[in-house]
Amino acid sequence: DDDDEDRLLAGLNEAFSDPIFQNAGLSGEDLHELATGNPVLADAVTLLYRAYRDAESRAEEAAGAFAIDGVITRDGDRAHAGEAPPPIEQTRDFLQAHGNYFGGLDEAAERLHEELTRGSDDLYTGLSSRLAQRHVLRVQIMPTDVMGALLRRLDRHGGRVLMSEVLEQPARSFQLAFQLATLEQRDAIEDALADSPLIGEDALRLARISLANYFAAAVLMPYGAFLKAAEDLGYDLEMLGRRFAASFEQVCHRLTTLRRPGEAGPPFFMIRADVAGNISKRFAGDAFPFSRHGGACPRWNVHDVFRSPGRVQTQIVRLPSNETYFSIARTVRRPGRHYGALDQELAVGLGCDIRYADRLVYARGLDLEDDRNITPIGINCRLCERPDCLERAHPPLRKKLVMDENRRTASPFAFAFD
Q1: What angle do CA 406, 412, 418 make, to 5 degrees?
Q2: How far apart are CA 94 and CA 209, in angstroms?
Q3: Residue 310 CA, distance from chain mean position
Q4: How far is it, in rounded angstroms, from Cα 335 to Cα 167?
């Protein structure tokens, strides 16, 4: 379908942007023909390229770890090519291959939500009662000087689910729903993993945790009710959070999972980054060319929101391949555990293809086709070949740098075009 084709094209574009293919002479039409004509081969090419990049990154890291006074020791030449990709990359690829949607877990979460809120809208009380009655586990909120860095702990011996007082109410409900997933949804989680290509126990364990998180979010925001509310509210993120007692980040994450056949929402993608640009979350119900190596484009408003914390910003962005997206971004704050502790400020970005933007309250009144409202961005600096970017941090990999002491361009790097 179209989603699979977009995913394949994004993977092929990432692979063939690498300098090793700079003389291959491949065009966008060639990549499109491969993705549509032989999707199995296109998928294999993408997997092979990512394995190559992961192995190369690990080799570089190992070489750096064994560097002494600029000399690489013999230990730095260890081979990594035969190793499996890191568990987090395996899990992200597994989720993306499923379009970040798992129907069995979603349906089970809807049934549980209905059961727990029958006669009452207090989901937290329903979750606590379920744990007590069915699993003989009482919920206990504990002070931070007892919990330390822990937010939740299952005390099987004492028959308790311990939660830190630092958690706000949406997070408390989420943690209880997660605990129920580990106790009641083991078979459904294993079914979802049955066809996974995950290698190693660490990757499998991380995937199980991710699926339990998926179930927990679906309990807080059951599919049918959440999608209807989202459509009625024009995907107003803060109103959805109030209606379902969920945080801004939880709502954004949930929107990337609404891919039920015949009842799908817009295919959103989501990213979470810190002030240094480190990406700690990326999810997509549709293909989006996230950067797997290096940061995201500095022109993307996901970075700009740190200048105005707590305020939603919107942006229309266009990639060099001419795909255009509508982007929403805002900071979220995680308070420190005590007075004097530093708060953690993170940026959450949510976006979708421009053709869905008119369904969003954030796009009302905007001319979505006016080029003056569109910000050109790249995947990241090394893969972007826009010559006039003032924010460029690295030269493009596929272009030759031009060194001329008699000229200075606005961009920090000047490079030659064929």
Answers
A1: 75
A2: 13
A3: 20
A4: 9
Residue 361: left if φ>0, alpha if ψ -120 to 50, beta else—which one?
alpha
Specify whether the CB–CB gap between 398 and 385 falls below 8 A.
Answer: yes
Q: Does 310 have pLDDT greater than 70?
A: yes
Are 121 and 173 in contact by the 8 Å Cβ rule? The answer is: no
Residues 145-183: pLDDT tens digits? 898 889 999 999 999 999 999 999 999 999 999 999 999
Query: Which two tokens mark 144?
Result: 């931070």
> How far apart, in whole angstroms, are the C-alpha atoms of residue 173 and residue 162?
13
The pLDDT of residue 335: 67
Can you give the pLDDT at residue 123? 94
Inform me whether the pLDDT recorded for 68 exceeds 90. no
- Identify the sign of the CA torsion 321, 322, 327, 329: positive
Give the 3-state secondary structure of 72-91. Answer: ECHHHHCCCCCCCCCHHHHH
> Is 330 within 8 Å of 313 (Cβ atoms)?
yes
CB 91 within 8 A of CB 198: yes
Distance in angstroms (rounded) separating the CA atoms of residues 173 and 216: 9
Q: Who contacts 234 (Cβ-Cβ below 8 Å, separation ≥6)? A: 359, 360, 361, 362, 364
Give residue-wise pLDDT tens across range 372-400.
999 888 777 777 777 777 777 777 766 76
Smallest CA-to-CA distance from 146 within 171, 163, 129 is with 163
Which tokens sit at 149?
Answer: 């860095």
Extract the tokens encoding 297: 């484009």
| Residues 248, 249, 255, 257, CA torsion sign | negative
- CA 91 to chain centroid, in Å, comes to 11
CA distance 347 to 305: 7
Residue 213 structure tokens: 């998180």
CA pair distance 177, 323, nearest whole angstrom = 38
* Strand-strand pairing, 313-318 and 374-376: parallel
8 A C-beta contact, residue 101 and residue 150: no
Judge whether 358 and 368 are in contact, CB under 8 Å.
Answer: yes
What end-to-end distance do the CA atoms of the chain give, in Å?
A: 35
Report the distance separating Cα 196 and Cα 190, nearest Å. 10
d(CA 396, CA 393): 10
Phi, psi of 28 (to 5 degrees): -60, -35
Please state the pTM of the whole predicted model.
Answer: 0.76
Q: Is the pLDDT of residue 73 over 50?
A: no
